[in-house]
């Protein structure tokens, strides 16, 4: 964070120095990243005398230097105390590198997609398979639960679950996942109803194969193609829902960067000629959603056992 270079356009270059960094690694550093305690300080003018770097902060154009730092505390880049840094996507309103925050923020979008889709598949396939295979009162009870849940607006239900579980990283994952199993269950139920009367299923029942084995090994593989497409759509929907929750302030909480929160923090800059601060994360969301929709269509064609 460097407030002196806030809201700079893409391609902005500035000279500055780095302090020596201390790297702190957690047990799950490959998920949470490595924390580097250092700060880039942009400078307007600088001069090295003896063992001290004298400088003025970026934007201060006075002739005399008003700040100093010992050279031993600097992190030397390319054998130079002062290094040039380019902000490819510019900086946000707090002077943070927008590209870095976009890269870190994609972890939230990908994580919410995988976790929410996994939860929706586990619940949806289980309930849909039981309802479609056994029918009768079991089917009626599960369909009643599906219809009641389906009648509640998705965003409203997610907000309610989030408020109950609290604001946070994993709470949003669980809340989104618990609201996306309905379509999976309906499709799986329909597929099981149409497939359970096939001759190979009747033959399996005649041979005394357990119902669970018939459901998992004989019917489900033939019903999985539309589920894959729905999973890809749910992946995209989960990203959009998380972005909406972050925009409303009940998604991933600061300092965790989220594309939805980035849009929220900068949407007012659209009218002051700095629309890129909100457009860049918006394009990121749009591109990621489109990518997973295309992946879903490709997986449907690849895993369709009927083709």
Number of helices: 10
Helix residue percentage: 55-70%
Task: Tell me the structural class.
Answer: alpha+beta
Q: Note poorly predicted spans.
A: none
| Strand residue percentage | 5-15%
Topology as a string of helices (H) and strands (E): EEHEEEEEEHHHHHHHHH
Largest sheet: 6 strands, antiparallel
Rounded mean pLDDT score: 83
Distance between the termini: 54 Å
Question: Can you identify the CATH superfamily of the largest domain?
Answer: MetI-like
Task: Tell me the CATH topology of the largest domain.
Answer: MetI-like fold
Write up what this structure looks like.
It is found in: Cell membrane. One of its GO terms (cellular component) is plasma membrane. Belongs to the binding-protein-dependent transport system permease family. The chain has 307 residues and is of the alpha+beta class. The protein has two domains: 85 residues, no CATH class; 206 residues, MetI-like (MetI-like fold). It is 56% helix and 13% strand. The chain is built from ten helices and eight strands. Strands 1, 4, 5, 6, 7 and 8 form a six-stranded antiparallel beta sheet that branches. A two-stranded antiparallel sheet has the order 2-3. α2 packs antiparallel against α8, α4 crosses α5 and α9 runs antiparallel to α10. The longest helix has 38 residues. It is elongated, with a radius of gyration of 27 Å. The chain starts with 11 loop residues before the first strand and ends with a helix. The relative contact order is 0.11. The model has no long low-confidence stretch (mean pLDDT 83).
